[in-house]
Amino acid sequence: MKNRAYKRAGNAKRLKHDRKKNVLFLFIGIVGFLGIILISSHLWLNHDAHEDSSYDSYINSQVPSSSVCMAGDLLKKKAVLSVEIDDEVYYGCCEKCLNKLIANENNERYAIDPYSNKQVNKADSYIRLTEERSGKVEYFESESNFYDYAKKQRGMY
């Protein structure tokens, strides 16, 4: 009888100790998870701020074709891949984008000039960043089309 009472008391102490240990592990896990979220969000926000400032060098100038993923119409700060199609050079950020350009799905190799509304070949167009500084680019038939568009639409230049 006495042994049973001691066993019950020992089991109760062990259960109480295990609960405390579980609560401690849960607390450490939650704090660790929140720490990871805070650190990753800080790094992500700093990366975006860095990317936005990297567009500054192209704000008032032509964007080189070799810096643009023509399948996604985005300025890329890292090297892009190129493919020659019908004596024209197109650029893409990955193999998937190059394959889109090769297959010319959805007319990937062409864009509409915002000023003249004519279809232009991305490989030999005048490329500028959009106003939003999001990395998106616009393709123009010529530099003068860009300046005419800027004057008309944005009241610039």
Layout of helices and strands:
Layout (H helix, E strand, L loop, with lengths): L1 H53 L13 E2 L4 E2 L5 E5 L2 E5 L2 H9 L6 E3 L6 E3 L4 E4 L7 E4 L2 H12 L3
Summarize the structure.
By secondary structure, this protein is of the alpha+beta class. The protein is built from three helices and eight strands. Helix content is about 45%, strand content about 20%.
Give the strand tally: 8
Proportion in β-strands: 15-25%
Helix percent reads 40-55%
| Euclidean distance between termini CA atoms | 97 Å
Spatial strand sequence of the major β-sheet = 1-2
Overall radius of gyration: 29 Å
Q: Average pLDDT, to the nearest integer? A: 83
Structural shape: elongated
Would you mind describing this structure in some detail?
By secondary structure, the protein is an alpha+beta fold. It has two domains: 55 residues; 95 residues, no CATH class. The chain contains three helices and eight strands; from the N terminus they run H-E-E-E-E-H-E-E-E-E-H. The chain has a two-stranded antiparallel ribbon with strand order 1-2. A hairpin with a 2-residue loop joins strand 3 and strand 4.
